[in-house]
Amino acid sequence: MKHDHFVVQSPSTPAKQLVLLFHGVGDNPVAMGQIGSWFAPLFPDALIVSIGGPEACGPNGRQWFSVQGVTEENRQQRVDAIMPTFVETVRYWQKESGVGPQATALIGFSQGTIMALESTKAAPGLASRIIAFNGRFATLPEKASTATTVHLIHGGEDRVIDLAHAVAAQEALMQHGGDVTLDIVDDLGHAIDDRSMQFALDHLRFTVPKHYFDEALSGSKPQDDDIIEFI
């Protein structure tokens, strides 16, 4: 499928992990690719691709949906309208790389985070990890699973997407049995800084997904595709 993208890292051998990055409104995949460059040294076997939104926004930017006139009442409708394209894009890169959902991570910022989080409602199990920088759900989930481990990272002084949305997301996911963490970066606005990145890198390297413990307690054995993850 044709879409705007920037390949940050393509390993010389078949990829063992897939990292897809999704930017905010008015940004572009090349700029968001700078975030991806933080992950490349730690995951040399990962295909890392920064994805551009399908709509033009400004002279050099892209977006997944327009924020002109967006409200709490119509945001979900706008997300739902473009979500099939988002899911198709993720699955396209999974097919291209030969990497399944169990070794796929979605990394979003702002509107990119909205799309990544909302994909857990539209296509459960699409990816095993989500790194959600300064974003939110369009509407809070009414159910959750441990198939996807969600790491919320949010600036404590964000005036674009209030920290309260991340707190509410954590509470909703926990209430419904999801696998979620929240890190608050003090004195940070609507941005990603070195502290945010350290939280993200540490989560991908060191956080053991909850479904591993669930499988151990149930006595089930992981499938081959489950063995390669971000730990």
How would you describe what is shown here?
- This protein is of the alpha/beta class and 231 residues long.
- It has one domain: 3-Layer(aba) Sandwich (Rossmann fold).
- Helix content is 37%, strand content 21%.
- The protein is built from seven helices and nine strands, in the order E-E-H-E-E-E-H-E-H-E-E-H-E-H-H-H.
- The protein has helices spanning 29-39, 75-97, 111-122, 163-175, 194-206, 210-218, 224-227, and strands at residues 5-9, 17-22, 46-51, 55-57, 61-63, 104-109, 129-133, 149-155, 179-185.
- The strands form two sheets. Strands 1-3-2-6-7-8-9 form a seven-stranded mixed beta sheet, sandwiched between helices. A two-stranded antiparallel ribbon has the order 4-5.
- Strand 8, helix 4 (163-175) and strand 9 form a beta-alpha-beta unit.
- Helix 2 packs across helix 3 (111-122).
- The longest helix has 23 residues, at 75-97.
- The chain is globular, with a radius of gyration of 16 Å.
- Mean pLDDT is 93; it is low at 223-228.
